[in-house]
Every structure is written in C-alpha cells, then in structure tokens.
Amino acid sequence: MPELVFFSGTMDCGKSTLALQIEHNRSTRGLQGMIFTRDDRAGEGKLSSRLGLVTDAVEAADGFDFYAYLVAHLSQGNRADYVIVDEAQFLAGEQIDQLARVVDDLELDVFAFGITTDFRSKLFPGSQRLVELADRVEVLQVEALCWCGARATHNARTIGGEMVVEGAQVVVGDVNQPPGEIGYEVLCRRHHRRRMTAAAAHAGALSPDVLPVDPSSLTDQVSRPASSRS
C-alpha cells in the first residue's frame, strides 16, 4: 500500500542526501518521481545536499496545492510513480493534508523530509501535521553531533556564534556561516538549554575565570614542606 513517510532529524544529519538517494535508487529502476522543495539553501527550485549533490525540483511556495498540481500533471498524460518533498517543515498544515490525499486518492508513495523543531525547540507546523498524519515517522540514523561529541537533538540559530532565541520561525540559513551572519548549529539538549554554542564554549575555555580557585594558592600548597601540611 502507498505510504506517507516522514523522515525527520536535526540539521546536518543527511535528510537531503537520503532524499537524493531515494530518487536515484527508484529512477534507476525505471520509476519516475516528482520532487518538491521549499527554501532550499541552493536557491529556488533546487534540492541540494551538503555533500555537493543537487537536482531540480518544483518550488512549493505559500499557497501551493500539491494535490491539484499532481492531478493536473497526471491528467496531461505525464507519469508520476512517487513523490519526494524536502524541507517539509516549512509547509503549512493544509499542504500536509494535500500530501496525505495524494497517498490515499492517487495511490502514490510520498517521502517527506524535514526538521521536527525550530531553533526554540517548538514544533514546525508542517512537521507537527506530518507526525499526526504520517503512516511512518523515521528518525534518521546518521547522527549529527554537538560540539561536545554527544548526539545533537536540537537546532540553534546563531549570530556571530552566539545563540539567539528571538525572531521569525523561518529564516533560511545554514551551518558554518561566516561571523556576523545568521547561521545554525546543532546542539545536544543540555547545551541548547544552556545556550552554549561551540564559539561560546571556546570563549569559556579561554576565560581566566574557569578555575574555581586562585591558582597561586595551589602553588603555595605544592611548595610548602610536607611536615607543615595538615
């Protein structure tokens, strides 16, 4: 039976790479798919991976109707065996409903890829609706890592390396942005709660206030004769 499958994960965990891999595997078996995306880092009408892979896609802007588009596509004698939707977190709830209808009425598999929560750890509307409607939710097994080495579970928005928690929910950016620009960083829950990015951790490590005691007192204790120590 056709399915609506939601592949979720943090930024930098390979969602777009997997989308491109699914497209490759199915197209090499003679199947034809329709690829949609929204606000990809490579620009309008593109599905791209940080590994450098990119393909053309249909841009699903505000008000775009997936069901109507696919019905028109098929009615004109064109073929579609499956649907891939990247950056699905940016879609509206009603657009996710349209994707579910594509599965149920047109009997096409729909593979949606997206981030579950935003930089404030709040659900994106599109992701929330996907969790509610999807036949399956798959958490990607390629783990993105926090700067501390723990599994990254949260997305942080940064400016100049500092985490920010105010602003619009959707601001297009990427990891490893130049200083001063809006960027993103993946963090474990602990460091997201503490707003401690890699840059903040590095600054803290260089701070003279890291040690909880005066280093000179330690020197005095080491140089004091053993007989005088308590």
Q: Could you please describe the fold and organization of this structure?
A:
Belongs to the thymidine kinase family. Keywords: ATP-binding, Cytoplasm, DNA synthesis, Kinase, Nucleotide-binding, Transferase. This protein has 230 residues and is of the alpha/beta class. Helix content is 30%, strand content 20%. It is built from seven helices and eleven strands. The strands form three sheets. A six-stranded parallel β-sheet has the order 5-2-6-7-1-8, sandwiched between helices. A three-stranded antiparallel β-sheet has the order 10-9-11. It has a two-stranded antiparallel ribbon with strand order 3-4. It is elongated. Mean pLDDT is 83; it is low at 206-211.
Which helices and strands occur, and which strands form pairs?
Layout: E1 4-8, H1 15-27, E2 33-37, E3 46-48, E4 54-56, E5 58-59, H2 66-75, E6 82-85, H3 93-106, E7 109-114, H4 125-133, E8 136-139, E9 154-159, E10 162-164, E11 182-187, H5 189-193, H6 198-206, H7 215-223
Parallel strand pairs: 1-7, 1-8, 2-5, 2-6, 6-7
Antiparallel strand pairs: 3-4, 9-10, 9-11
Which keywords apply here?
about 230 residues; alpha/beta; three-stranded antiparallel sheet
Helix/strand order: EHEEEEHEHEHEEEEHHH
Q: Return the structural class.
A: alpha/beta
Biggest sheet strand line-up: 5-2-6-7-1-8
Strand tally is: 11
Q: Roughly how many Å apart are the termini?
A: 77 Å
Low-pLDDT sequence parts: 206-211
Task: Give a nutshell description of this structure.
With 230 residues, the protein is α/β, with parallel strands linked by helices. 30% of the residues lie in helices and 20% in strands.
